[in-house]
Amino acid sequence: MSALVKPAPKPEAGPQPGAGGRDLATGAEAEAETAAAVPLALGPLEESLGFHLRLAQIEAFDAFFAAFAEDGLQPGLLSVLITIGENPGVRQGVLANALKIKRSHMAKIVQGFDAAGLVDRRVPADDRRAVELTLTPAGRGRVAAAMPKFRTHETLSASRLSAAERRTLLDLLRKLSGG
């Protein structure tokens, strides 16, 4: 199993009773419908950029996991593979900094990709402490296979925005993230 694949959880057989013997799935759906219909006062959270970014991220990740459930892909791992593919020979530390991933975590990710045959690691002659990364043919194939679904996911995730609003949002997010 590749480091890019996370096994899907196995559903339990039959309905799962919750409090009072009700079906959790049905209860959760009913609660979600009720929650959507009843607006809550959020006080200072109404104007909190971080709070709304978090809510948007949760929605985006939920949609990503639903779209890629059968593939077992995770957003962070796919972003690492895509970025390596766009920047062959990128140094691991540069990649970690650009994607805001701790170096120790990036090392584990790269080790998993290497073990799965998705990346090649090379130590450059000018800096024996550095590691340069390049996708293998299998890594390029993995990214290429994911891209149609990724593009569809991106289109759907911005479906509530006009094209101009999407561009503006991306510009503002890049500005906020220092990019």
From TrEMBL:
This is Winged helix-turn-helix transcriptional regulator. SMART domains: HTH_MARR (SM00347). It comes from Jiella sonneratiae. PANTHER family: HTH-TYPE TRANSCRIPTIONAL REPRESSOR YETL, TRANSCRIPTIONAL REGULATOR, MARR FAMILY. Pfam families: MarR_2. Residues 46-178 form the HTH marR-type domain. Residues 1-28 are annotated as: Disordered. It comes from the Bacteria.
